[in-house]
Specification:
The protein is of the alpha+beta class. The chain folds into two domains: 119 residues, Archaeosine Trna-guanine Transglycosylase, Chain: A, domain 4, CATH 2.30.130; 75 residues. Helices cover 31% and strands 28% of the residues. It contains five helices and eight strands; from the N terminus they run ββαββββββαααα. The strands form two sheets. The protein has a five-stranded mixed beta barrel. It has a two-stranded antiparallel ribbon with strand order 4-5. A hairpin with a 4-residue loop joins strand 4 and strand 5. Helix 2 packs parallel to helix 5. It starts with 8 loop residues before the first strand and ends in a 9-residue tail after the last helix. 30% of the residues are buried.
Length: 213
């Protein structure tokens, strides 16, 4: 998929406590009528859905949105006997909201642009350089252990640096604000620096709940 193939208008799925990164794969359990409609209509078109974080401002039915999210493509679709839809979404590219459309549909739609995130769909990849991310991996192990998680990061070491950082960003028990900062980092080097800062803050403060400003 290249930039010309990405839709300029997309359905928006504001989901709290959830951030998707390019190249990651996530299962979703869809049961609300508005999102059942969204998924069914998306399956008839390009199978693209925009995942984005709602803010704490706005109304309950229509919260304000962060400006940057990530589109995902539905790669698996299954209907259950009780009316739910189980999908698997593959992260493709980040987007920035230009405007929200007035629509009679149950779900929200936005006009978006991808110009700031062309690297997400570039074929270029960075080979894993453990001198670059070795410290991050080690600090991440310490962080997970301190939080009571037992994880195996070996599989991540086989991926390129960008994919490794995306997977770590999504799976880590960071705050939502910290994950949003990582999502909005324009390239892999900036994301690496931001993750180092976040981890250093946790380590420095003895893993107290701090947020990178």
């Amino acid at each position: 998929m290249n930039i010309q193939e990405l839709p300029k208008t997309i359905p928006i799925f504001p989901l709290s406590n959830f951030i998707m990164f390019p190249g990651t794969t996530v299962p979703l359990n869809i049961f609300e009528p508005r999102y059942l409609q969204m998924v069914n209509e998306s399956m008839k078109n390009n199978r693209i859905i925009g995942m984005i974080q709602p803010k704490k401002s706005g109304t309950l039915k229509k919260p304000d949105l962060y400006q940057i999210g990530c589109i995902g493509k539905i790669t698996s679709f299954n209907e259950t006997e009780d009316g739910r839809i189980l999908i698997i979404l593959n992260g493709v590219c980040r987007f920035r909201i230009k405007s929200e459309l007035n629509s009679s549909k149950l779900y929200r739609e936005c006009e978006v642009q991808y110009n700031d995130f062309l690297g997400d769909i570039s074929k270029k990849s960075n080979e894993v350089n453990f001198s670059d991310i070795g410290l991050i991996m080690e600090n991440m192990r310490k962080f997970f252990k301190k939080q009571g998680y037992i994880v195996n990061l070996k599989d991540l070491e086989k991926k390129d640096m960008s994919q490794t950082l995306n997977d770590l960003s999504m799976a880590s028990p960071f705050s939502l604000e910290e994950k949003q900062i990582l999502l909005e980092s324009l390239d892999v080097n900036i994301r690496k620096e931001k993750m180092e800062q976040i981890l250093n803050n946790y380590i420095k403060d003895d893993f107290e709940n701090t947020t990178l400003q």
